[in-house]
């Protein structure tokens, strides 16, 4: 009889338990209720409000926090992530820049798992919530746009790098954002330039749903008007937000009706709250009455939740994978391939034959400046006709991409890939797998370098201003010193005056010394 397998094998299987990965981004101007919405969405009090230092409390039994909130990216002119900093009036004039945080939770759906291996267990959603802080609070908010766009792009790059790796990481986590909710301030005036620009920028990497926040600010009529204004602005400025469209040929009658109803409601107008009533329902209490935020008569929150976690979850994931990511991937892989073909001059086909990229030809491209941040890969002129490309037309499953991509690319072991008899296709794959992660990493380093340079330039500017200020003070002191000397010489004042003058002279002198010491220490810190 075979001995029983060791118990740790079972444990490992448990650790690898998979659920539906799903990632959401909350963005929009500060104070529009993103944090409150995040708490309401998970029916818990997990996320503290700005300047609050409270720990998560009142967590729904359906939720398990797997990775507490952490800063994943930030950009600010003073080099400090503004998020989570206690309120400090002295820093009120500091621009907060932008901070991006991420929190991972497991949500029990109450449904049996779709995975046959775990059919006796509950299906879970591995939910990653990304929140943004500081948007709309800077004189120039373009750094927020750049940072958030860069974050989204990096998540695509990570998947692209993983897909092209020969040896896959079985624990790879897909952090691509499937849906972004853009919170519009309840101004009643339609979209602002910032809203348009921001939604346009991020819509390249994720599905965007505009949301009217704090909808209790409006009467019914005002809300309808505001909706119309927003819709006409979205149309006018060609903002590619997610639309609930129907296909009468493919969709069943139920889907058509549902999508039409949702399309009429767009943009969803929500009311959120931190307060619960005695029955455990989230409510907003006003002097004139109480609003239950899940009541569909007053707020679209309930409908939005069922769209996000029910009817359209898979749709958002599919669009991200099949449309947005595939476009990005094709563009990324083809841009440099085109460039290489044209850059190699007369012998373009020979260049294509010798294929492909290696670390050395990549390095030479970098040196000659042929690769820019939006162009990264030197491969043959056509996008690789790997099984991956072919399979991209298939409807993706809800499994994570490491699993999906296992099917897409044939597995190669290291020895095989290193042999001299490999087919051109294999050789190309090997070269891609060698180069893509390298190029992407390099791009990230370049982006980080640029960010550091920007910060350095900013602090050099501030330092320069301080030096000028100190020099001005030193000059003033010198003038005063001169004046005092003159007064002493003229002997116009009595001894009391002159002694007090010399006291203040000594004080000034000490101050001046301090000033010079300040200057010297700044200069040495800088060096
Ligand atoms: N009237 C009203 N107030 C709301 C609503 N939702 C949230 N608030 C309040 O708005 C304020 C800001 O809400 P937050 O959720 O902290 O807003 P935020 O967008 O996360 O703000 P930042 O962290 O600064 O980006 C809080 O006082 C909330 O209680 C709403 O639907 N209606």
Automatic annotation (TrEMBL):
Molecular function (GO) terms for this protein are: GTP binding
- Give compartment(s): Bud neck
Which SUPFAM superfamilies does UniProt cross-reference here?
A: P-loop containing nucleoside triphosphate hydrolases
Where does it mainly reside? Answer: other
InterPro entries linked to this entry: G_SEPTIN_dom, P-loop_NTPase, Septin
UniProt keyword list: Coiled coil, GTP-binding, Nucleotide-binding
Query: How is this protein annotated for GO cellular component?
Result: cellular bud neck; septin complex
Q: Does the keyword Isomerase apply?
A: no
UniProt keyword annotation of GTP-binding present: yes
- Where in this chain does the entry annotate a coiled-coil region? 453-487
Give the signal sequence positions: none
Query: Composition bias, kind Basic and acidic residues: at what positions?
Result: 405-414
Record-annotated Septin-type G domain positions: 18-335
Annotated region described as Disordered, given as residue ranges = 373-430
Bias class Polar residues marks the residues at: 373-391
Q: Where are the transmembrane segments?
A: none
- Name the protein family: Belongs to the TRAFAC class TrmE-Era-EngA-EngB-Septin-like GTPase superfamily. Septin GTPase family.
The protein's name is ZYBA0S04-01332g1_1
Annotated source species: Zygosaccharomyces bailii (strain CLIB 213 / ATCC 58445 / CBS 680 / BCRC 21525 / NBRC 1098 / NCYC 1416 / NRRL Y-2227)
